[in-house]
Amino acid sequence: MPRNMTVAYLAAIVSRDLKPALFIEANFTSGPVYIWSGFGPITWNGQVWTGLGSLVGVSTIEEASAVSAKGITLSLSGIDVTLLTGILDEFQLGLPAVVSLGLFDATGVTLIASPVTSFAGRMDQPTLDVSGTKATISVNCESRLVDMNTSVERRYTDEDQQLDYPGDLGMSFVNGIQETQIYWGRTPSSKNNI
User: Fold this and answer.
1) pLDDT of 70-120, one tens digit each?
2) End-to-end CA distance of the chain
3) Where are the domains of the chain?
């Protein structure tokens, strides 16, 4: 159970009449876009979220018992083809995307406080599907755990140490000891003892 789940949210999850809503925050070069799976605007978390209804789609959010990077796909359909170039100009690889699951109370009008973050990751390459005058954009989002598969090119050198700790002298002698022969205990008395 997430630590920030309120009592009202937990009660709504276990109730027989579940009224969910997805909140998607996607960042672009001009700033974040806030959309949700319902209709009309709604205010939550200090932002006004635009309701797109069935035009917005989110693939299944998976979890596994082992530590692994699971991604999702966000899709937006019914886009006017003339707006595609403007949308694609705003896109940049690696910007954050967050999907939160919100629940409404029994009336279906009031959003229960503190929707839970279901996925947080970074956006990958978008895919376009154009048919006639309308288009669908799908964006794969990768979990930050995918960075575990990337090798880290770090070395035990002074240059590398200066990247993290400028002015530190801890690695400044590494190059000088590379070919140095160190004797533990007594120094040999002749070259034959080496």
Assistant:
1) 889 988 888 877 777 777 888 888 899 999 999 988 887 888 888 888 899
2) 64
3) 7-149, 151-187
